[in-house]
Specification:
By secondary structure, the protein is mostly helical. The protein contains 6 helices and no strands. The relative contact order is 0.10.
Length: 110
């Protein structure tokens, strides 16, 4: 249905939630990055167990942490995605499989 909120609206809901719980004023990028690693670990656990609800929960939790982390860094997820899309488009001609990369190409990718 058309009642589904946009990504920006959901992002704003997450940020309001994080502000209300004093997460954003009292946290740091490093703390949120560690939390992201934890949530990705939970996601991997759910994938191994073939726990569909756990997978959905893990992806959702990781996204929430990424939204908060981006906000602390004065960024947002869509602008980061847009940046990556533009970067990948520009580099499309030099992209190779990691397995086939020469040392020079590895340096280019880093």
């Amino acid at each position: 249905s058309n009642d589904m909120p946009s990504f920006q609206e959901l992002e704003l809901d997450v940020l309001r939630w994080a502000e209300a719980r004093q997460i954003i004023p009292n946290s740091s990028s490093q703390v949120q990055a560690l939390k992201l690693v934890y949530e990705v670990g939970e996601l991997c656990d759910a994938l191994i167990k073939k726990d569909r609800d756990g997978v959905i929960d893990g992806i959702g939790d990781a996204l929430v942490v990424l939204i908060i982390l981006a906000d602390i860094e004065r960024l947002d997820l869509l602008s980061c995605l847009k940046f990556i899309k533009e970067t990948v488009t520009m580099e499309a001609d030099v992209r190779v499989s990691l397995n086939d990369a020469t040392p020079a190409q590895w340096d280019q990718m880093r």
